[in-house]
């Protein structure tokens, strides 16, 4: 894989060079692999949409090196700052008012007056700091398909559409970031993700308001059909039908599990963190067996289970033309 480079200190300079000339770099974060471009470079941002086949009305997350960099582009309210100070770097994205003459290319915000901002963990911050600008980085996969959690998955999906793929191993969290927007002193959960809602509520001292996912798009990851394998998805399956693959969870199997053409268990112990890490890679693996449908055993709607079920519902939603 000649466009894949091990992500270490020596990879920072070539990655930054690609970004500066408007190219694309697949970067490993703690959530999923991101497809990165300089957020101030219109040519680079346009290349993201082209490589992914992503609708241009779907905004992107801008990744920053620290809170000080974020403050050059957005305005923090007290609650958002409190969350940033507690959870950054980490799997939390904040939707904040964009400052005038920010330099962020309009394609990043998809015309919205806000910018979705996050500070990722790990060495990605070194690249951002060296570049001197935020990087726009949605998940590194074809739009609507399963997010990539390894460099190999990025290469298999996007191939030579990416100038450089940085291999940092498997992602630790395995789910995209949680997206929060503060409005009139109230916290709104725009997308559940790798940071459990309960953890955010503890810090804020208030319950999160869940946004109707049929509402207008306010942030990345809010499209109804998303994260989808080629196979159809049947959720909360209590049995397995002939010819189906099975995405299992916990120690107890659905009825007729022996019928499944393939079985992968997100977590035999029923551990939601382990399930989140395995979700996208297991969906990809089951898809390769050629089953028309993947049956999914019930997963509790608590903690990270809220984000897991969100991704599964989007994967199971009617597709374009369906």
UniProtKB/TrEMBL annotation:
Example of a GO MF term: tRNA binding
Cellular localisation: Cytoplasm
UniProt: ATP binding residues: 54, 58, 63, 114, 118, 139, 147, 191, 227
First and last residue of the signal peptide: none
Known EC number: 2.7.7.87
GO biological process, alphabetically ordered: regulation of translational fidelity; tRNA processing
This protein's record includes keyword Acyltransferase: no
SUPFAM superfamilies associated with the record: YrdC/RibB
Transmembrane segments: none
Source superkingdom: Bacteria
Limits of the YrdC-like domain: 9-195
InterPro entries referenced in this protein's UniProt entry, alphabetically: DHBP_synth_RibB-like_a/b_dom, Sua5-like_dom, Sua5/YwlC_C, Sua5_C, T(6)A37_SUA5, TC-AMP_synthase_SUA5
GO CC list: cytoplasm
Catalytic activities: L-threonine + hydrogencarbonate + ATP = L-threonylcarbamoyladenylate + diphosphate + H2O
Residues annotated to bind L-threonine: 31, 137, 177
Keywords from the UniProt entry: ATP-binding, Cytoplasm, Nucleotide-binding, Nucleotidyltransferase, Transferase, tRNA processing
Its job: Required for the formation of a threonylcarbamoyl group on adenosine at position 37 (t(6)A37) in tRNAs that read codons beginning with adenine.
Family of the protein in this entry: Belongs to the SUA5 family.
Official protein name in the record: Threonylcarbamoyl-AMP synthase
Organism of this sequence: Nitratireductor aestuarii
